[in-house]
Amino acid sequence: MLKTSTDSSDLRPVSDVAAFSTMTDRNVVDDESLFGAHHYRRLKAVVRRTQGAWLYTQDGERILDCLAAYSAANQGHHHPKIVAAAVAALQNGYGSVISNVVYTDALSAFLKKVATIVPALSPRLGNGRNKVLAKNGGVESVETAIKLGRYYGYKQKGIPDGKQEIIVFRNNFHGRMITIVSFSTSEHYKQGFGPLTPGFVTADFGDLAQVEELINKNTCAILVEPMQGEGGMYQPPDGFLKGLRELCDKHDMLLIFDEIQVGLGRTGKMFCFQHENVVPDVLILGKAIAGGIVPVSAMVTTAELMDLAFRPGSDGSTFGGYPLACVAGVAALGVIEEERLADRSAATGRILKQRILDIASRSSHVKEVRGKGLFIGIEVKSGDAMEFCQKLLDLKMLANDSHHHTIRISPPLIIGDQEVDYICERLEKVLVG
Ligand SMILES: Cc1ncc(COP(=O)(O)O)c(C=O)c1O
User: Fold this and answer.
1) C-alpha of residue 19 to centroid of ligand 1, in Å
2) CA 399, 401, 403 angle in degrees (round to 5)?
3) Active site includes 258?
């Protein structure tokens, strides 16, 4: 007789994929190479388990995570409150995906949490209430924001459909799907993947005059990272974001901020745009929004703009806003607030950056140190940051490069004095000797 899916004998431990499984590190690497796409350059480490700011290897060694999955693990790995929320959802029958044709309390709670944690967007085009559209990976929400920007141009500005243009920036990074890489300025992201999506024009990050020159009657939006992450950890010059705001107001365009990497406490404010107090029309969030437990992303805008662009059929996603993701999301955002992770990032980041500047002043390798909060870039003169990242990994600290030339230091926001000492001891060894 066939077993039913609820037979307890079916719940065998899956030991060959569990942490500290019997697979050797060699097996792990070999099988990944044999059966997986080689779309990431890997550093030489096999991680079996994670907790807080630490990664653990098979032989029991621990590595300080100074990358935090590009800001996805801002709350630290396996934060107990987020894990408890997700486990409770799965064990109590409210975690599984539910068809989007019905309402769920999980999505309702998540939408409200995100809509209210974000300050009221677009004073010009809204009346103080935000609305949220949930997706999975960050790139999906960037695409959703592009749809909104184009639709606004078509419907509100009367731009003929297909002629809408969005201004983007050199060295941008917004993900890897076809439309998004179409306007990347990194050739290797898009070469051979054509035909690419038209409708984007590029200005230098920080150059307002260039932006103004690119504006024409078909321009509907500006899409920008308020601080560039993958592009080399750059802050724009003071006044740049404000200038973009003014141009958008003057020419009736939407200002879209991609805060997938720099939002949710990373740079020492809950949202990066709060450093300059420049409020966008559209905000894109991802990564830490669900604490690194499940992929969730969100596009936030005003109720008016959301209702203008999206009706039944004009957008959707099977897993976008499914219960497990929403439960994890509510818990993850709660942790950022309760543990005041933005303030913590600002305070720890100030000390860490000061100490890194001191190390840099004694190093012959460092060109520049930049960043805010726990989002710190160390540009190296050789242009090959990975060479230093491998040495840091040998000293049990994980960091990677941003745009080849910059070492990215972006640990979970929960780190304290001991981890700051740990980081600085290793940077001292690698950068000074
Ligand atoms: C600014 C920014 N936008 C978009 C993305 C894409 O997010 P995802 O990899 O979740 O699709 C990233 C990822 O690093 C990012 O840093």
Assistant:
1) 27
2) 160
3) yes
**Candidate list 169, 173, 240, 257, residue with the active-site label:** 173
Q: Let me know if 173 is a catalytic residue.
A: yes
Burial of 382 (0-12, 13-18, 19+ CB in 10 A): exposed
Beta carbons of 395 and 373 less than 8 angstroms apart: no
Catalytic annotation, pick one of 113, 269, 287, 372: 287
Q: How many Cβ atoms from other residues are within 10 Å of residue 215's Cβ?
A: 18
Rounded to whole angstroms, the Cα distance separating 137 from 416 reads 29
User: Ligand 1, atom 13: nearest CA belongs to which residue?
Assistant: 175
Atom of ligand 1 at shortest range from CA of 228 = 1
Mention every residue, 6+ apart, whose C-beta is less than 8 A from residue 369: 353, 356, 357, 360, 376, 377, 378, 379
Handedness of CA 152, 156, 161, 163 (dihedral sign): negative
Across the chain, which has 433 residues, the per-10-residue mean pLDDT values are 38 56 90 94 91 94 97 98 98 97 98 98 94 98 98 98 98 98 96 97 98 98 98 96 98 98 98 97 98 97 98 97 98 98 98 98 98 98 96 97 97 98 98 93
Centroid of ligand 1 to alpha carbon of 405 (angstroms): 19
421 is catalytic: no
Residue 139 CA to ligand 1 centre (angstroms)? 6
Q: What is the pTM of this model?
A: 0.95
> What are the chain's domains?
18-75+340-431 (3.90.1150.10), 88-338 (3.40.640.10)
Q: Which residues lie with the beta carbon below 6 Å from any ligand 1 atom?
A: 70, 137-139, 142, 173-175, 225, 229-230, 258, 260-261, 286
Residue 225 exposed, middle or buried by CB count within 10 Å (0-12, 13-18, 19+): buried
Long-range contacts of 309-314 (CB under 8 A, 24+ apart): 309/147, 309/148, 309/151, 309/152, 309/155, 310/133, 310/148, 314/147
